């Protein structure tokens, strides 16, 4: 990879009320201002699992996917009218092996794992955005997917894996944003931070067996899975990533990283 390639990100995206959290908004905003301006953004979100690999809408103005429940009405009226990215969609399809089919779901707009953080990082919605599905939850297969997408970074595409470093929603006792992190969340987050600092990709891949706090930190694993697309898209998966954001929200770890 050249020195001018875009980085790749794994970010903890938060529920729709993230936009009302002043600290998190300031952290995401500062992060985006430090990044080179992308030509387009490619998002793999925890909230879209579909095999084979599926490409979402490439049309500007496709309605958002409000894939959540129980929130105030204003969150269902949010808009994010980012330009479509049909050229990027064609490139993504071309990068996939001939023996792995690619599907298209042209009616599917961005889900909250994509538009919520992007509405903070790129509030003018002036960068083309494309969302693709998680075709598997297997970390090694997702690493390979990231490797295939890696050349897009040379063209200025910002690859974003959007999940949550811990996501044990069924085990939360206090749903308030400033809630103290449960032990399982704090322990998993500390372990993840240490493994990032040690560039220990093997341990991260085997997180279900090796990480403390499991399975409470991830009773289902789709929110950690996008990390492996990001690591695969890096120029060297065993590099030490920048840990840009840490801390907790509703007791869940919002640790987020950037790789070159």
Q: Strands of the biggest beta sheet: in what spatial order?
A: 5-2-6-1-10-7
CA-based gyration radius: 17 Å
> Helical amount among residues, as a percent range?
25-40%
Distance between the termini: 9 Å
What is the tally of beta strands? 10
Profile the largest sheet.
Answer: 6 strands, mixed
Unreliable segments (pLDDT under 50, ≥5 consecutive)? none
Order of helices and strands: EHEEHEHEHEHHHHEEEE
Mean residue pLDDT: 97
Q: Structural class, from secondary structure content?
A: alpha/beta
Describe the model.
Strands 5-2-6-1-10-7 form a 6-stranded mixed beta sheet, with helices on both faces. With 260 residues, the chain is of the alpha/beta class. Helices cover 29% and strands 17% of the residues. The chain is globular and about 45 Å long. It has helices at 22-34, 86-95, 112-121, 139-149, 183-197, 201-205, 207-210, 226-233, and strands spanning 8-12, 40-49, 54-55, 103-104, 129-134, 157-163, 242-245, 248-249, 252-253, 256-259. Residues 26-238 form the Extradiol ring-cleavage dioxygenase class III enzyme subunit B domain. Pfam families: LigB. InterPro entries: Extradiol_dOase_DODA, Xdiol_dOase_suB.
